[in-house]
Amino acid sequence: MAAMRIEKTIGAVDIGSFRIAAMIAGLTADGELVVLGSGHRAAEGIRRGYVTDMDAATHAIRDAIERAERAADTQVDSVWIGCGNAGLMSEIREIDLEVGGRRIDQDDIEYLMSDAREQIIPPAGAPRVVLHAQPAHYILDGAHGVGNPRGLHAERLAVAVHVMEAETGPLRNLMEAVQNAHLNVEGVVGAGIATGHACLSEEERELGVAMVDFGAEVTHVSVHVGGILVGMAVLPYGSGDITDAIASAFGVRRTQAERLKCVYGSAIASPTDHRERIPLVSGSEAGAQSAETILRADLVAVINSQLARWTQDVAATLKSLGFVTGRGGNGRQIVLTGGGGELAGLADYMQQSLAKPVRTGAAPKMSGLPEAHATPGFASLSGLILYAAADPLDIRTSAGGWQTASRFARMTMPARLMRAIREYF
What we know:
The chain is α+β, with helices and mostly antiparallel strands. The protein contains 12 helices and 18 strands. Among the domains are: 89-165, Dna Ligase, domain 1; 239-307, ATPase, substrate binding domain, subdomain 4 (Actin, Chain A, domain 4), CATH 3.90.640.10. Cell division protein that is involved in the assembly of the Z ring. May serve as a membrane anchor for the Z ring.
């Protein structure tokens, strides 16, 4: 069998608060995406999505990418990175243009995009920086959902642009930690966008869906409608807070509490929980505590008390984003992902609490993807690769042509004639 011909190599690093994971993939001549290697390690120097120790974060990033490079038997010089916090803010902005009832041509669209870029991109030195500025759809005289306005007549033409911003300082810290690991930053992808590429189908994103990325220290809540992300919020609460509650309730170390949660924990109570006793610590750990046991019902009760608060915050956040839960609400389906989403029974618990269909989302099958990295906890890592391969339209990177565009309506007849001669002859 002939070896695959890799046309382009893509590197990605997902910098989480619990783990830092890296992946290297290749695009073949046939357009197939193949995972060449991946690796992960425990996170250091990261707290709730912010860099708190530059040296520790840099070391962890370098270690993760070296593991992926060894598995792929190749090296990368630049990577795409995910931004999980850094004061993320997401909104839809509308930029309009007076057309005057005439037919819309390509110059009108280019001029509108150029105007949108000037209004959306903040000046150098601003406290916030734009991560994404993706056009969603056009609006003709207040009518939304127009895919291509060229050739149509309207008084006013507008474009709805999804804009995601981050705080400049925390984002620079994140990028510097990667650069100190001898890597160039190819691009930064905001939370919700990467996981959306990994876990959501095109039909789901078009019809409307909410995504809840339950991480270790933060939860990303996002809403996708019309094929794009239209709203996103970050909650400073993650599955690690459940681990802390277990450690406090039973007087064990955090590592022991994490084991209890992952091995015996569940979001749904069972009739047998009151009869089942589980060891506080594993048999391999020495000490007098090794023989001590607790009822599984007590563990589930601690987990449920934390989840009750979490689901209330998620429901309130979804409502603020226009996605109303409960029977009769306008929200459709909810997709649960992230490392915390692997807790047994959590999707069913959310479905009961929010009264909406909930499914667990993970990355799609890709050639060469290890089974261990095909779980919800690594969805954002695969999403970074998929986003980089898709290379979606962004008005910042496509601004070159728009900057030189001019509207025919603002040009004299001789100027329009000369432009037509240059373009067509």
